[in-house]
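Troubleshooting: if your tokenizer reports a length mismatch, compare against these two reference records.
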Amino acid sequence: MTASPWTPPVQAERPASAPPHDPFSAPVRRIQPSSPPKRSNGLWVAIAALVLVLVATSGGLVFWLSSGTEEPAEPSVGSSAFPTTGLPGPNLKPWALFPPNGPEERSLATAAPSLVFIEAVFTGYLRNRATKAPVRTTPITFSRRCSGFVVTTGGHVLTSSSCVYPSAETTRQIALDAVARMLVREGTLAPGQVDNYIKTNLEKTEFTGIDPGSAPTSQMYGQMNDAKGNLVGDPAIPAELVKARPAETGNIALIKLARENLPVVELSGSAEVKEGSSLLVVGFGTDDTDFRTAAYTPRPKLVTVTGTARRGDASMYRINDDVGANSHGGFAIDPSGRVAGMVDQDLARPDRANRVVLPAAGLLDLLTEAGVKNELGASDRAYRDGLDAYFTGRHSSAVSQLEKAAAESPANLLAQAYRQIAVERQNSADDSSGRPIWPVVLLGGVGGILIVGLVVLIVLMLRRRR
């Protein structure tokens, strides 16, 4: 028997790519990777909120501390008109006469220091025009009193011509009135015959100097601030006539005081004064009945322009009120404190009340003819800077500038007065600025707590991230 050949057993084929069997392998992973930590959004929100609160608290503290030192804005002073309400009684205290910091107070405070009381004293003899014989053997002396205002640092003053340079007819009339009253006191003329005596002898007499044909002598004096009549010594300042225009061509005069560095007022040649507009007129007045010892003080009054008129070649404004018989030569000012015109007598009125204003343009023309210029001095500029600081609440600057103005121009008593008020207001502000300490302590404590809380939150956040 034949034996068949031996063949090896056939083995099943395995894919070439299959990995070798790993007995430790498992269908799922036994160790899972840990998930990333959740973001601490709440912690970040808390930190951001804490930072905002801290910033707000710090800002509030800074604002509270600095709010008391902020410079106030300058109040606007319009040039339209003053309020229509009347002014209180006479007295040159602008801070008491007007609403605080109003345009009336500010304009009066600016211009009033330049106001001058003028007294012109004339001495001569009343003579018969035909025979030249004196009517009275003794000289006749009479005074004219009015207002004026300083326009240059050299002491030039604008005033009324009829006051300091009256016409020959006016001086005769005044001299005749003086003689008539002497005759009444002597019992040779009845009181009711005074006017007729003047009228009868006006064209028959002349008023001359010590010799026939010579001019009567005259002396002039000016007083700043309050004044007294018949005063020839200090504080009265001697003056002399520089230039004058008669009534028919302006009735304005320029005199020069024998003193410099007096307060100066600005003229507004371009001022537009219209019917119905308001002006503040200022001139000297008195309530005393004894002419020889009368005391005079500056008086302001708010007036309304009622119309325009002409006196010869000169134009003028009519106003509805006045501040008394001695206010001619005073000024009418606008809300900026500049002179819009000079107060003068209304010759068309029976009482010749001081109810016209001569425009500033004519005043400037007279200054040009005399070769002088309306300019402020260093003390005037310091005074205005001081007033500007005063009315805008910058008391420290006001004290400094007003002290400078008062030192350089001692006649400016308002500079001294406003300086004292500024000092008092500054002291009051310093006292009131001593703020209570509890807001600082409270805000500081809150800020400190917030800072500590912020640091703690940041530390916690960093630890959790580790």
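Reference record two:
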Amino acid sequence: MQVALVWLLAFTNVLLIRGESNDATICKDHFMLDPRPHSVSILEFGAVGDGKYLNTLAFQNAIFYLKSFADKGGAQLYVPPGKWLTGSFNLTSHLTLFLEKGATILASPDQSHWDTVSSLPSYGRGKRYRSLINGDNLLDVVITGDNGTFDGQGAVWWEWFESGTLNYSRPHIIELVSSKNILISNLTFLNAPSVNIHPVYCSHVHIRKVLIETTVDSPYVLGVVPDSSDNVCIEDSTINVGHDTISLKSGWDQYGINYNRPTTNVHLRNLSLKSPTGAGISFGSEMSGGISDVTVELLTIQSSHVGVAFRTTRGRGGYIRNITISDVILSRVDTAIVADGHTGSHADDKYDRDALPVVTRVLMRNFTGEGIGLAGKFTGIGESPFTSICLSDIHLQTSSESWVCSNVSGFSDDVSPEPCQELMSSPSSCFAGGGIYGVDTAARGYYSW
């Protein structure tokens, strides 16, 4: 059985082969699905899958052993059915971590089993708990399975967070730092302490066919957070979490400005999203390194506080630009679209109040919605208004027909309820090829994508 798993299910040489620079091609790029030539089971390292025995050392020893195969085509660590309790451990390059159907990796709820690490340089404040699954400067990593499960057992962390008794930031389930060629697929994620999947400073990341869920009362638990990363695809997945389901970020205030690594070339598609206290898709508010060239399409967002959110504030610097969001179905959403220039705390009191963020060239089209509270709320910054906000073919059934607008400009075409005058004020910024981005080629012609 294990040999079959190696040949049929393991992936190696995970290479995203880029075509054009247009981010809409990222999910169409393909992986080279060669088999791993070596495989071991976690059972070979003394692991016990009873949900009680702590297997941290077994996972660490297994990964250490598999490092020796990095220059021999890589290897797979096979996790069979069972409940495998563990603290945090690090992955290695040219590795497949495979969770069989019925296998659950359980995060230990014992705070003493979690090391602390320094904050990320683009965030620059304090320490934080190491994540459950970690990787730093890795190449060619696959985390997959036959719908195996990661359970963060986050309830105890949520209690500590809400009571203010945590000394450090909560851990994530998966965090990969400065790594390249990453595939995460065919898995379920439950009850993360904080973030489920956090690629930061990464390139060529493909996340597909994952189910991410937490309970409604999970405080500020996020689904996937691409952070100062490029060439990212997230597709064919369902995410139901307490806060934002997918949140694009790129650093915090002066630390993100100085680190200067944007999140760019991102494609999100075919997603079912639910966020009772957050947003289906969000940009920021930590976006000081910049966020650009993002294509979002084919979304269903239901029972959420906000559908699509753009968040920033004075002192962030950076930019959010060249964003296209299309084919979105909204149901039972408090506010369909929010763009807020006054959201988010600061890393410390050393931020530059004159570092003004720029939000521009955002196209949203083909939205439908029922059970919507407010159609949209756009509040830019006086010294740095949001510009070229372009709406097309958007039809929302709202309980309030008002749009709230200040310090914003753009244009709308075929939008109901009728938007505010500020979003009808600047047609030249939204027209290309004779229409309001009627076809992709026109949009690319304007944005030079």
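Descriptive notes for reference record two:
- The longest strand covers residues 319-340.
- The radius of gyration is 22 Å.
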